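Reference record:
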Amino acid sequence: MSDCRFIYQLKLLKFLFSISFVLQLSSLMLIGEPDREVVKVPNTIPLDPNDAMQLINLPKGFSLELVASEPQISEPVALTWDGNGRMYVVEMRGYMQSMDGAGAKDPVGRISLLEDTDGDGNFDKHSVFLDGLVEPRAVLYVGNGFLVGEPSDLWYCRDTDNDGKSDTKDKVYDKFSLRESNVEHKANGLILGIDNWVYVSQHGRRYQFQGGKFRHEKVPRVGQWGLARNDEGRFLFSTNSIPAMGFFISPEYLVPERNEGPEKLITGAVLKVGKYNEVWPAMTTTDLQSGLGSSRSSNGTLRSFTSACGQSFFRGDRLGEDVNGDYFVCEPVGRLVRRSKVKYLDSGHLELSNLYESSIGEFITSSDGNFRPVNTYTGPDGCLYIVDMYRGIIQEKSFMTPYLKQEILKSKYDKNIGRGRIYRVKRDGFSPGEKPNLLGADPERLLASLKHPNGWWRDMAQSIIVNRRLVKLVPFLEKIVMSNPDPLARLHSLWTLRGLSRLEKEVALAALEDTDERVVSASLRAINWSPSEYSYIETIIDEASPAVIAHIILAVGQNKSQKSKGLILKCISRFPMNERVLRSVLAVTSKEHLKSYFYEIISNPVVQRDTKTKKADEWLKRWDKFLLNE
């Protein structure tokens, strides 16, 4: 095909898109501000938890319950639970204790253990699990201990005598983050993927616990503070001004040495509806790092995200079906928490919309200037948990401007230190779920938990089965994969088999015929397929969704045989303009094969593209540039 003809096609595509883009832009301009009350003179003095909660706004039908506060905890930034529902809270107790950040590197950080001893849902017992830490920032229960992020190291800590205190502290990796770098630009957000690997925000490695030890391998370094994972295993991350970014494909395929650069394959997976990047605080916001230019002239509120962090997909079962799968992200400068609806498009995009944009503005807001939500979690009880540092200064000293210092002193925010709260979000008509007791559970109990409606239970049961090497459950896991009516139970059982190194080809082949694309995709991802088995994969191509087609390409693209190339070309022909499919091709394809794939796409008579964006023609141009500039 000639270059002239190709350029003509691109111009035509751009013209067609421009018409729809103008119409969409016109409709956006008609969207007004939410109908909300803005407090012009917000509270600035520290309040006790009960009084502070009176200034927090939630939608009708939702309520907050205090789980923990000072003096038990101070400066909380992250948490995790063990298999028995005991909560471990990371306290960054040296963070900005004064305007100049003095003492930030003092070993005063710790991890507190909170326990509910009588099963009433309240954490009534406090002890210190681990102390003497410098800027601790992440914790995750895995194996039979805890990964703890303390720059520059990632530690594995265990309580070997069940006294509630860490007895061992073994170094997993000594380049977790630079100790001397800015506090908000260090690794954090430890989270267990459905594939039995631990992923980290702002860190270029993932970790897996095997045989009592951790192994690690390279993945792209993304995010700033926090990392979210949905039921299928897809991740969303953020930067301070971008509340959601996402992978089109699984991180293990994005090996930095093999690809031109992670941004070529990662960015753009999130589409935002309406004025998604705008935020709607309940109070005038003057303590802004960038000054009043970041606030609305009409009411002095923060205009858009400037400290997005602590995101999560809600995967619990005690807030109602309409909340399950929603995306939550904190904005501590704006004193709010955003709730987003998530729509999964065939193009591989996740479309996010602010549920309250046309009504009250945000899911949670406060007119207390000390409300500083920094993390969100799905709890063992099926409720949503929010970590609130409850402090005056949120900006780290490196980016403290003269204007911000002035506003902090004016409001006396520098005087509020040493506090912190953790809240549970509840909903009318729902009571929190039962307290888990999985650490000593028998195999049958763990197997049943893989079918639990709360994702926390499924994750924990899978992790325990894998780490206890309960291979006697293999026949039962195989039965779930092949016949259980719940697709999430099938999905977790498949990955549990993979974690046990017991996923047989017969089971994977059965999963290829599953009615749920998430299970089919997992079967393609979880096992190594040889060219002699490609005939089985080929049988599903004609009816496969774009998501499955993308995973076929990723699965066979690791092999450089002619059979692999032929299968990839057939996949491209199914969806020649689908962005997820194209990105999958580029992730696994050598340069010598790219040209033949490229011309297969632009010569295909059926050009399919996502009508919501101009990404398809942009992607063609990107391919063209990538190929011609060899």
Notes: The chain has a mean pLDDT of 90. The longest helix spans residues 3-29.
